[in-house]
Amino acid sequence: MIGGLATPGTSSHQPFHAGILHWKGQKCKPVKYAEILNWLPSTLNAHVRAHVKSCIKLTESIPKGRRMRQSQLHGWRYIKSPRSSHSSTETTSTETKPIYHQFTSMGNGKSRFLIHDNQEEVNRLHYQHEMLRQLVHGNYNAPVEDAFEKGGIKVLDVACGAGSWTLDMASTYASCQFVGTDISDNLLPKSGLPPNCEFLQADTLKGLPFADNTFDYVYQRMLGYSCSETEWNIVIAELIRVTKPGGWIELLEIDMAYERPGPSFEPLLKAVKAACDARGIFLGAHKRFPYYFGSFENVHLDALTIPFGWNGPIGQECAQNHRLAWLAMDHRLAPAMGLSREAYRQLVIKSVQEFAEYKTWLRLPYVYGMKPQKGN
Ligand SMILES: C[S@@+](CC[C@H](N)C(=O)[O-])C[C@H]1O[C@@H](n2cnc3c(N)ncnc32)[C@H](O)[C@@H]1O
């Protein structure tokens, strides 16, 4: 048990050597958590070191659901950073490389999400997925590994975006059925899908197009920046409705409380919070995880941490993803801040450059739990 409740079916936690994986084109090499501490910069103060230590959970005992499968390790892919077309002044030596599919349609999305649903966002979401898979040490935390291995289960990825998680999981677990839904048809994959996987355009707020109690496992990652507090309640009710009794729901969200933001990032953070406020977007969903899962059993709450621009390759990847996401909000935030697009972009680039110096990081809270067998 890592805190919270014990995970059923995983009473004996087997030793697991895990940690931030080498992945830049090299063979993946699982490492011990203890080793990660040795990699931290020597300049890191004791407080931060203690925090990192608690966050990475200095233990060799990880519940089975968090284990990265060998097939995932062997199938690890290095994804080149998508090049942003936002700025001519920034330097990236890599090129755009759509990963899973060809994008087939463009148009206006209907969500309040602050980033356009275009090809650039598709690429960024795939890139972000690979980054998150490292941070999670796999694709999920709930103790559903045995069910996936056994096969035959139905899985739903809600607000799946470009379908990165669904496609990855469907390729890994060929005998399970996967469905991804998103409000934006533009983001959804259209071709080259594994046979056990489909995508549907669906606004969760209007009701998911599935009967009650359909899915064994329902996953939703980073819906944030999209819904009001009331809408979040509707979303959660929908997720619960379509989950089978005894099935699992897992959510992962961003906590916008950046720790140690540098001076250039502070006005940007203020601007994005103001933009969300103006749209009625609720940024506190993670704080309501215990409420959302109030009727559930075996609830487990925890958080991942993201270092930006420090703590080795993963920090570089997180900073790059952050930079792309914030550049992609220029059409919304530059006017709100009274800046030209170019001035806004320069501020984003400078803020990301400061991250390493200030050791900026944030939390990605997650929760999973089991829908009770008898009613809910
Ligand atoms: C940050 S993206 C996350 C995508 C995906 N879950 C991932 O982790 O790669 C947020 C997604 O939520 C979708 N979204 C926003 N409001 C939605 C709604 N009401 N119903 C379904 N999807 C929605 C957006 O279109 C966008 O694809």
TrEMBL record:
The keyword Methyltransferase applies. CDD domains: AdoMet_MTases. It holds the Pfam family Methyltransf_25. One of its GO terms (biological process) is methylation. InterPro entries: Methyltransf_25, SAM-dependent_MTases_sf. It comes from the Eukaryota. Signal peptide: none annotated. Keywords: Methyltransferase, Transferase. Residues 155-247 form the Methyltransferase domain. Gene3D superfamilies: Vaccinia Virus protein VP39. GO terms for molecular function: methyltransferase activity. This is S-adenosyl-L-methionine-dependent methyltransferase. The lineage of its organism: Eukaryota, Fungi, Fungi incertae sedis, Mucoromycota, Mucoromycotina.
